[in-house]
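A sample follows:
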Amino acid sequence: MLYSLLFPIFIISIPFLLLQVGTSVASVVVYNNILSIIHKISAIFSSFLLLLSFYGLLHAFIHNAVIFDMVNSHTTPNLPLIYKIGAIWSNSAGSIFLELAIISLFSLFFNLQTIINSHIIAIANGILGLFQLSLMIYLLFPHNNPFVLLHHRLFLGELNPMLKNIWLVVHPPSLYAGYSLSILLTAVYMGAMIHNKLRDFKTVLLLKFVAVIAFSLLSLGLVIGSIWAYYTLGWGGLWFWDSVENLALLPWLGLLGVIHALLFIPHQQNPTKYSSESAESNRNLALLWLVISTTLILAGIILERSNLLISSHSFFEKKQMGIYFLILAFVILLSLLWMLAIAITTKISFKNKIFFLINSVLLGSILIILLGIVYPIISNFYGHAISIGATFYNIILVPLWIITYLALTFHLKHKKTALSFFSIGILLSLYSRIYYPLSVKDTIISLAICSTALSVSASLLFTLYQNFSTKKLALKHISTTLIHISIATLMIGWLSVSVYSKEKIIDLRINIPTTINKKIYLLKDVKTIANTNAITGVQKKQIYTIINVSNPHTNRLEHTLRPSLLKENKGTGWQITNTNPDTILTPLSNTYIALVNDVASRNNKAHEDVYYSFRVYQHYLFSLILFAYFLFFMGLILYAVHLVTEISHIHKSKDNENDI
């Protein structure tokens, strides 16, 4: 059977990867055309074979080939096609294989393109090959091998109900694509720096473009993950400072540092804007941020699968992986030491105060988040179980970020406009406190966020208007303005959702109306479906509800909500496995309702006396968060278009005909 050939195809790629790395290292010492051809062909063949094996496994999931243990354990025949595809990366080995496949895809395109100088490709191929090999070693462990065959063909498992969501089908590929492109960017940047190509305008623009795309993919993955958590898990929030969430946030902060460092490298339109000393410093700074970001990606892969994290969605690993994780941890330690050596031996200066502030806050944020992740792990080794949650990060990071944005307010071009809207923000915060009692802490946070966000947005918009009126408006100005205004909008949205939200637990009975937030809620119907798995004997109970929401003045039906619940008998009683909440989104608020339990009859009589317990959140200005996401990605898209335009302009220029 063709499926039995997938593992040999996977194994055959190893010699090509070893040849790719070996010739890449050799080409650094002695470069010639033969080595150039060998490492390119090796990279193309190895990437093609890895992609072919991944496609074979994808085909197996789609066509229910339960000959594979992975297919047998994570899917069922009646699962919709889109979830069968997502089931591949619903487990630890599958997610690593997805990361390997995406890196291989980028490597394949990278070696087929003709834009980048072959000397740079040689160094980049060596780094990419090492990453591919490290991921392959993980998949070669027996309990991680995705190609393990079975003699029996029975579906003994199924996809986790919480993963049966379209957002989770898109979330990991987007996140891993951002990781892979970051690794490729690091590899190319190192090659360009070694061969002194970072003084070439086209090279810098191309690196900026790749950095923006990697940052956009990583941002998309984080946003999709937060939306999935909000609409699927029944948590009622978008970010909970969970350990795995934080591990994904760290490379994002690193890439943010990369982009800001690349922005201050001279460009073609004004090559003398920055001094040669400043440009060299920013080149070194960009490399430092790239090493930090790549190291954090590797650290995240290790910690997420180490059984050391306390997280709601970390992968379970067997103890035999300890040796492999120890080796990878040693590699990361070497990377950190190398990163430290770069920082010490290269000259990095900060003449721009705002630029210094941005880099300091980014680095400080990374260190604080790392402390929150690592400290509980260390304390557990000494027998002290400690869990660091949202309170720790909110107390330290939120004020830090507010102060940073506040500092930007006093360095804007139009200070009078900024200060005017700063005052308006203070008045709005004080006015809202009249109608919504807040603690002293929440009042201070509200004042700071609202006033700062309004002042920064007003100043940026006024600058944009002036550029428009003087006909100096460029796509770059529009894009960067949108991105920074989106952050200010997001701040106000998060403030409203975090500080001004209301939460209550209510009990509903069938056909008994209840008033919630000036609306009439009527539980119309409840359907309970109980079943027992014939093979595993697991008992499950699915509870589906229908709630009509009406206007109390007109009695007109406005919404129909369908929150549901999945419970599983664990032997000690029924336990909640999954909740599927429902929402009512309006421009000013978002009502979020989740079924949290079916309460036993209080008088043990008829079915009509059974109470169903719901959690209801009232989030104000939630739509501002979604609008901020829209502005943010629109700004990134426009900035990417701006970079493509500049690259094509240089490509057509007679003075820059040589390849980078």
Remarks:
- Strands lie at 502-508, 514-516, 519-532, 539-550, 557-561, 564-569, 574-580, 582-585, 589-599, 611-620.
